[in-house]
Design the sequence.
């Protein structure tokens, strides 16, 4: 619903009744957040209670944060398999308390060796066919999640792959009841899923209806795959029995992933991007995610304004957030891509002086027209190369269409922290289950820019920096983040939500630091999102009508309704050390501690 329509009707005096009902319907969704869950020793927060329980059991059995995170991730692949799994990828930030070091593990998927920049362009029309990059085997990139989990466990865990897989194997074999979110996602995606016999066999009744709320989902093939991994390690997936099944499926159904692609896949250890916000240190995900860089860029811009004084979700605060978001997303469209293939001006984008230059052009009460990116290269000490060019098509396809991607946060009793965001991209990924394995293949190829300026599923546009190339990693928005205060861990943050991940993480952090909310309130507060293209300010239910109206008066094209993302976070009380977990009321997750 567009607020401009409401306001025009109001002025014409013909739709007061509609406005009356709009006002009545606003404000109820997040009126009061429950209290956060608290614990003394360790905590796991994830998007499903059974997955959080798997992680908590590992912590209680003496495992560390890495053991618990990996167990939770495998369990999520079973009970929330439409969002993440070993057919997809992940990013992890791990803070090791004893070394005071933050490590980044990049388990992002990689384009197959046979991928080409124009592989989704239709030969006859010359236009991108979005169906090809979102649905079916050709949408799948080489999965990296399992390799990343294995690396984390081998280097930093204390348990074996077999031990941390145990809860997930049990859940896959004994089944679990579908939650409302799962049943809704399945119903939403049924047409995509029905097309693939191997997928139909897992999620549908023989009469072609999908499993519904409260029905039990059994995944015996996935349990068997997990058992093979427990026995043989991740090499079974990247060169052994499971690899052979993946390659056989590719041959049978005209996919691109080869045995060489699988054996060549390596998770990468990276350095976090680091910034600061009002005295707090922000550690987040570097490229090939855009998340950390633009989170820090937006925080740098907002630091120039007194958001505490302006108030939580006031017209001015949302306006300033939207202006910061627009500028960051305009830069994202041009500069961001896999750093192995393109030079990304990370230092410039995250510099305080670049943020100053952007903030100076923000009017307090008027939206600005952003026609293109800024010039972060000017703030990179080495020099100022010429800017790549970009043509863009404005569109309106960025609304949150389904649930996808997942985040989990863990703190253990030694003070180790894990923030992990994992995905198979859109709900149920490509929709293609690799026959005989129970593995849902991702559709992460859609996170590339299929052609300059053409929108992907999330309405995001990109440039050559994110064009498809063999063995390149697609640009992501995933933003697993750790916040410290004077060297002490303070927050573990992250969320699903496509591009709305970055703005959700921004708002959760600001809600705590600027507005003093507890972690549950900070998560549940209504959200705003702007991603430059389309030039629309999206507001969740719960933003009052007078605020919507003010934002319209400031010049924003306001679009209201619905909700998005699903933050799963932990806050550590700096005085007492107590752990407070917040799980998003928009989902059915759980914070569990001891
Ligand atoms: N697949 C969503 C993301 O990585 O941003």
Sequence:
């Amino acid at each position: 619903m567009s607020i401009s329509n409401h306001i025009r009707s109001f002025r014409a005096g013909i739709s007061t009744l509609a406005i009356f009902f709009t006002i009545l319907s606003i404000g109820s969704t997040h009126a009061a957040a429950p209290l956060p869950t608290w614990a003394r020793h360790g905590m796991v927060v994830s998007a499903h209670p059974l997955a959080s329980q798997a992680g908590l059991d590992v912590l209680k059995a003496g495992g560390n944060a890495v053991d618990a995170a990996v167990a939770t991730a495998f369990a999520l692949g079973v009970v929330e398999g439409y969002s993440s799994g070993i057919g997809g990828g992940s990013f992890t930030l791990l803070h090791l308390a004893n070394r005071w070091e933050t490590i980044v593990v990049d388990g992002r998927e990689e384009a197959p060796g046979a991928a080409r920049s124009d592989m989704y362009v239709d030969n006859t029309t010359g236009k991108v066919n979005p169906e090809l990059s979102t649905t079916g085997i050709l949408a799948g990139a080489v999965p990296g999640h399992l390799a990343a989990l294995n690396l984390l466990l081998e280097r930093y865990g204390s348990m074996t792959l077999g031990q941390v897989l145990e809860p997930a194997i049990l859940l896959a074999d004994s089944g679990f009841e579908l939650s409302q979110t799962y049943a809704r996602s399945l119903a939403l995606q049924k047409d995509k899923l029905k097309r693939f016999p191997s997928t139909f066999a897992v999620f549908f009744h023989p009469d072609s209806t999908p499993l519904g709320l409260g029905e039990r989902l059994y995944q015996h093939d996935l349990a068997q795959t997990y058992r093979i991994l427990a026995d043989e390690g991740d090499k079974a997936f990247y060169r052994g029995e499971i690899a052979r099944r993946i390659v056989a499926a590719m041959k049978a159904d005209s996919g691109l992933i080869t045995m060489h692609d699988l054996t060549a896949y390596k998770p990468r250890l990276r350095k976090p991007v680091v910034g600061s916000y009002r005295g707090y240190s922000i550690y987040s995900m570097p490229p090939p995610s855009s998340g950390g860089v633009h989170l820090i860029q937006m925080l740098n811009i907002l630091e120039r304004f007194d958001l505490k004084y302006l108030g939580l979700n006031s017209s001015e605060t949302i306006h300033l957030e939207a202006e910061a978001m627009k500028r960051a997303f305009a830069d994202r469209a041009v500069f961001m891509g896999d750093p192995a293939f393109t030079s990304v001006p990370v230092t410039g984008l995250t510099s305080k002086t670049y943020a100053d230059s952007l903030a100076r052009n923000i009017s307090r009460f008027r939206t600005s027209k952003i026609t293109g990116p800024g010039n972060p290269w000017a703030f990179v000490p080495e020099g100022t190369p010429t800017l790549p060019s970009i043509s863009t098509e404005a569109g309106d396809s960025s609304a949150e269409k389904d649930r996808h991607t997942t985040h989990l946060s863990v703190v253990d009793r030694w003070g180790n922290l894990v923030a992990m965001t994992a995905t198979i991209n859109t709900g149920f990924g490509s929709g293609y289950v690799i026959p005989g394995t129970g593995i849902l293949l991702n559709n992460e190829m859609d996170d590339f820019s299929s052609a300059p300026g053409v929108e992907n599923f999330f309405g995001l546009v990109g440039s050559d920096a994110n064009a498809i190339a063999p063995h390149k990693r697609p640009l992501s928005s995933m933003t697993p983040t750790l916040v410290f205060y004077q060297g002490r861990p303070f927050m573990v943050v992250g969320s699903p939500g496509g591009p709305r991940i970055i703005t959700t993480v921004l708002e959760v952090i600001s809600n705590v630091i600027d507005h003093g909310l507890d972690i549950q309130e900070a998560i549940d507060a209504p959200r705003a999102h702007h991603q430059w293209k389309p030039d629309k300010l999206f507001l969740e239910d719960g933003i009052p009508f007078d605020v919507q109206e003010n934002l319209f008066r400031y010049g924003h094209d306001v679009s209201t309704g619905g909700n998005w993302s699903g933050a799963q976070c932990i806050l550590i009380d700096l005085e007492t050390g107590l752990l407070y977990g917040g799980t998003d009321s928009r989902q059915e997750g759980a914070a569990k501690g001891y």
In short: Confidence is low (pLDDT under 50) at residues 1-30, 384-400. The chain is about 35% helix and 15% strand.
